């Protein structure tokens, strides 16, 4: 399946060659698609392009695939993060269908996504991906079954306790980890997606109804919906902020979603450790059986099958 990647803004437009379609029409279609994706995302977030600009943020659209007729598209869209401590990008996968001059857009955070995904041609969304999206939605109450994002038996430091994907805001779905050889690994099998045009952010959609996110990656893979196994290499911990935010030291910003909604880590067991919130973001602790580890201490990865108690 063909793909094309580029940084999209409200100004720059790249043209995808579509047989039989004049170059001017291709450019117009690309521009309309990007604008439609951005407006849909801003509308869902109840904000505007002016408000985004005032915050020093931008919108990016990465159209990763189109069909030969140019009437279907799939990709990722990102609202870059604030340049403040703990902020992280707000990213969505999208599927789009053009009828005449208008694009119907469904983000993976919207109810219409599942239906439009299943209606899309397999040249745009493969049969395997459709199965994964369907399984993820169907198994919303399944056990976590997640490893920590580094090798079983290895210990990394929890440099930042439970906090939100973008720092302070709840739910506190995330934890910051670093150690060893800095190689970040998939927490469970699934399908992986490249979420930020400049890299550094990977999303894995798991068949069991959960989704994991990884930010600040260096030398990362560039997945486009390919299947991935638990323990596969994703990238290296770093201080990179390719879609905004901040990072004071090397780490992976590791977060949990159920489907496409952030889920509080409080009381969740991953890699044998049950995580608990503290009185403020980035504090808290984790327990394994009778052992308690606070921020700044090491967590051995016991793998996905250890209940932690």
Largest sheet: 9 strands, antiparallel
Level-2 CATH architecture of the largest domain: Distorted Sandwich
CATH homologous superfamily placement of the largest domain? Glucose Permease (Domain IIA)
Content of β-strand: 25-35%
Shape: globular
Low-pLDDT ranges: 1-21
Count of helical stretches: 4
Order of helices and strands: HHEEEEHHEEEEEEEEEEEEEEE
How much is the average pLDDT?
90
Overall structural class, as computed from helix and strand content, comes to: alpha+beta
Strand tally is 19
How would you portray this structure in words?
By secondary structure, the protein is α+β, with helices and mostly antiparallel strands. The protein folds into 2 domains: 103 residues; 146 residues, Glucose Permease (Domain IIA). It has 4 helices and 19 strands. The N terminus is likely disordered. It is globular. The strands form 4 sheets. Strands 5, 6, 8, 9, 10, 11, 13, 14 and 19 form a 9-stranded antiparallel sheet that branches. It has a 4-stranded antiparallel sheet with strand order 1-2-3-4, with helices on both faces. The N and C termini lie far apart (45 Å).
Write the layout of secondary structure elements.
Blueprint: H1 23-44, H2 49-54, E1 59-66, E2 72-79, E3 90-99, E4 102-107, H3 113-119, H4 127-138, E5 155-163, E6 174-178, E7 183-185, E8 190-194, E9 201-205, E10 210-215, E11 224-228, E12 233-236, E13 252-258, E14 261-262, E15 269-270, E16 273-276, E17 285-288, E18 291-294, E19 298-300
Antiparallel strand pairs: 1-2, 2-3, 3-4, 5-6, 5-19, 6-13, 7-12, 8-9, 8-11, 9-10, 10-13, 13-14, 15-16, 16-17, 17-18
